[in-house]
């Protein structure tokens, strides 16, 4: 297959007849799918970051009806998003291409990362989070998937709602800014709305909860519970900071696990009572600095294995 034709297909510039030829070519041999997937990988940076995204997004919208008939050959590729912001350390983990439709899996390793999606939506991924999303949204809904924690600033498009899927709940928005935290097992879910309006749907019970600005939703004993955002500074991780104010020692250790993508063993340490009254920690200064800040108020000893990403905390001797 001519590479120039394949590049036109990736950029949504091929004709209906050319698309039919490409889909038949993809169906004829698994090696052809690998070839196209590799070409997607070569163009991934341009697809995510290039200013032409708006043009690709608009072009794909005009061609949805024509492409939908061809895409029925494809397995549906769910897309997801979740968490974080700030640095440039990232990994594009892998690409999944089924008959020409690509699903990109983005991941943040040991620091927050900011991405711009194909529709102009900004996503911050916290350390350890993964996001699955198409290079270009082409359906009636803009759907992404997330594991971990993420912050979304969604580009408004009333005709194409933005949907974030997690293992436990879905979040449906039109245009807004919100934070999501969820694990792959579906046992942890929390959404906090900073601006706009969102609907949270429990994937198990189909229970629905509509949130207004400064409200939150969490999953407790399998049911959605409405709450209030206690302090907007808790979401400054997108700017590279961890807020100490109002949090207990144990809660901060949980935050450190996400922010620095580490495991923390603190079973031998009695948890102190009380909450911090002020303060912020800069994520870029690393896990050692964060723990040393806590040591100023509650003495303890710790070791950190950087290869295993494991922190072990023990009572101070």
Structure, briefly:
The chain crosses the membrane at residues 70-92. Helix content is 26%, strand content 33%.
Number of DSSP strand runs: 19
Q: Main beta sheet, described?
A: 14 strands, mixed
Alpha-beta content class = alpha+beta
Name the shape in a single word.
globular
User: What is the distance, rounded to the nearest whole angstrom, between the alpha carbons of the first and last residues?
Assistant: 69 Å
- Strand composition percent: 25-35%
Could you tell me the radius of gyration in angstroms? Answer: 22 Å
What's the CATH C level of the largest domain?
A: Mainly Beta
Order of helices and strands: HHHHHEEEEEEEEEEEEEEEHEEHEE
Secondary structure tally, helices: 7
Low-confidence stretches: 42-101
**What is the name of the CATH topology of the largest domain?**
Jelly Rolls
Calculate the mean pLDDT score and round it.
Answer: 78
Corresponding CATH architecture of the largest domain: Sandwich
Query: How much helicity do the residues have?
Result: 25-40%
Structural domain count: 3
């Amino acid at each position: 297959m001519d590479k120039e034709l394949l590049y036109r297909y990736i950029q949504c510039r091929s004709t209906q007849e050319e698309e039919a030829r490409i889909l038949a070519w993809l169906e004829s041999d698994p090696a052809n799918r690998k070839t196209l997937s590799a070409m997607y990988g070569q163009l991934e940076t341009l697809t995510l970051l290039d200013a032409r995204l708006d043009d690709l997004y608009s072009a794909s919208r005009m061609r949805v009806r024509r492409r939908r008939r061809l895409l029925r050959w494809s397995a549906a590729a769910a897309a997801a998003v979740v968490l974080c912001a700030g640095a440039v350390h990232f990994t594009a983990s892998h690409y999944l291409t089924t008959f020409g439709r690509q699903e990109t899996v983005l991941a943040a390793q040991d620091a927050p990362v900011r991405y711009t999606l194909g529709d102009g939506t900004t996503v911050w991924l916290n350390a350890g989070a993964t996001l699955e999303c198409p290079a270009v949204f082409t359906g009636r809904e803009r759907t992404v998937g997330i594991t971990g924690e993420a912050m979304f600033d969604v580009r408004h498009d009333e005709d194409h709602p933005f949907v974030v899927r997690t293992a436990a709940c879905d979040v449906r928005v039109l245009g807004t800014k919100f934070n999501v935290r969820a694990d792959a097992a579906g046992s942890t879910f929390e959404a906090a709305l900073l601006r706009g309006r969102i609907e949270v749907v429990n994937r198990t019970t189909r229970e629905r909860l509509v949130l207004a600005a400064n409200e939150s939703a969490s999953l407790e004993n399998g049911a959605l519970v409405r709450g209030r955002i206690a302090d907007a500074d808790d979401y400054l991780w997108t700017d590279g900071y961890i807020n100490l104010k109002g949090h207990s020692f144990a809660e901060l250790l949980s935050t450190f696990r996400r922010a620095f993508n580490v495991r923390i063993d603190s079973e031998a340490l009695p948890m102190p009572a009380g909450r911090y009254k002020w303060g912020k920690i800069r994520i870029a200064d690393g896990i050692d600095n964060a723990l040393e800040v806590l040591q100023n108020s509650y003495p303890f000893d710790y070791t950190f294995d950087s290869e295993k990403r494991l922190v072990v905390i023990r009572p101070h001797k």
